[in-house]
Structures are given as structure tokens and as C-alpha cells.
Amino acid sequence: MASSLAPRWIAFAQSAPRPSFEVASLKPSGPDDRLMYRLQPGGRYIATGLTLKTLISNAYAVPEFRISDGPGWRDSDKFNIEAKVGVALPPWPDSNKQLNLMLQSLLEERFKLAFHRETREEPVYELVAAKGVAKLKTAKADESPGFEMDAGRIHSMAVPLEYLATNLAYLLNRTVIDKTGLAGKYSFTVTYTPDDAPPADTSGPSLFTALQDQLGLKLKSSKAPVELLVIDHVEKLDAN
User: Fold this and answer.
1) Half-sphere exposure of 151 toward its Cβ, with a 13 Å CA cutoff?
2) Which residue of 19, 97, 110, 186 has the smallest Cβ count within 10 Å?
3) C-alpha distances in angstroms, 21 versus 86, 90, 102, 115, 160?
4) Order of strands across the sheet with 114-129?
């Protein structure tokens, strides 16, 4: 009886295969292709103007400043992706997680990507409540989740503050750790003046000031262990 059950136990213990695109075309970008991502109706995924480093950043949800080593062309050569998802995706944010897994499969198949992770002590920002008081509005129970970032604007819709901390890292090129101690989901809009704004558009607050004045949150410099993705091997793109 034990021996007859053993094969079934092994089968159940095996992990499910990582998802991949049904079909995918990956080609060098043209000179006029701009950075863009789009998931169209019917499961058609299009992305243009992406460097290898940007692709890895998206696939593994790691900011580019935490990706090290690799060839020089990781930051210069740009690529376009046109792919078919082939399966029904769950609602956001789980849909992003599924797409990331498909991108991981694509990177390993087409670029032969191999990497390891290292933890190093690095400068970070801690996101904390300024003077112990946060000016945040709890999201309504029936509000749909979402998170958007444009130049000079951050819009959160019914998501935890973890999303704010994670996305601030991309703006600041430094890991941001949520140390607010605030649970729950929040909806808010923050407006600020980007560092690269034209001189005529610099009358608004900096990002640091906007977070404190509009949300009651503060970014505090600190140091902490940070996980880096270190590229061990990658190959030039093969034709299609």
C-alpha cells in the first residue's frame, strides 16, 4: 500500500511549471521606438524600447540600481517584445505577477540569462510617519485597487503603503523600506516637482516635502541589508 501511494506523493510534491508566453517575438528596437508597455485586449502584450537591464528589472521586480555586473550592452541595446499571453489573467496586481513570470521565461530562453542574488549593506530610505502623525485616507471597502506614477504625480488606489515604498525606490534610485507601521489600504494623490523639471516648472514642492505636507510621511536616511541581483551569464539576442 505504501509503495503504491509513493509515486502519487512525488507527483503532488512537484511544483507547477513557470508560465510562459504562448508565442513571443523579441527584436532589436528601431531608432524611433520609445519606452512603452501595453497589454491589449485579447492578451496581446507589447513593449518597446527596453534595455536588457529594464527587462530584468520588470521581470524580477527589482529596481535597476539593484542589478549589477553583466555586459556593457545591457544598458545600451534596446529591444521590442510582441507576445501573446494565451491564458486569462487575474485582476491587477496578480496579473503583473503572471506577466513577470512570463518575462522571466523569455529572458532565460532568448538571452540565456543566469544570475545569483547577494545581500549587501547599502544606504536606504525608511518611510516613516512624520512626527507620529500620518495624513492618510483609508480606502473604501469597494474601491478597486491600482497604483499610478507620472512625472510629478503619484496616485494610489486602495493598496497598502508597501506599494508607495516600492515605487519610490524607482524614483529615488535607493531602496525604500516601509517603517510606518500602518496596516490597511489607502487612497491618495501626491503632486510634486520632479528633479528634472524645466526651470519654469519648479515652483512646486520637492518629492520629500510633498510626502510630508500632503501625506504626513517622511523619508529618513539609514542603512540596511539590501538584496542585489548579480548577472552571471547572458548572451546576445538570437534572431527572433
Assistant:
1) 7
2) 97
3) 7, 15, 6, 21, 30
4) 67-68, 217-233, 114-129, 176-178
The Cβ of residue 220 has, within 10 Å, a number of other Cβ atoms equal to 12
Please tell me what DSSP assigns to residue 134: -
Other Cβ atoms less than 10 A from the Cβ of 144: the count is 10
Cell reading at 184 = 490597511
Locate 76 and state its grid cell. Answer: 545600451
Range 33-39, long-range pairs (CB < 8 A, 24+ positions): 33/78, 33/80, 39/85, 39/89, 39/95, 39/99
Under a CB-based contact definition with an 8 Å cutoff, are residues 58 and 106 in contact?
A: no
- In Å, what is the CA distance from 55 to each residue of 102, 139, 160? 11, 32, 25
30-89 pLDDT, tens digit per residue, is: 988 998 888 888 889 999 999 999 999 999 999 999 999 999 999 999 999 999 998 888
Q: Which residues contact 137 (CB under 8 A, 6 or more apart)?
A: 186, 187, 188
Give the pLDDT confidence score for residue 94 in this predicted structure: 81
Q: Which of 137, 134, 128 is nearest to 157 (CA)?
A: 137
What gap in Å lies between CA 172 and CA 184, rounded to an integer?
25
Give this prediction's pTM: 0.79
CB proximity list for 203: less than 8 A, separation 6 or greater: 193
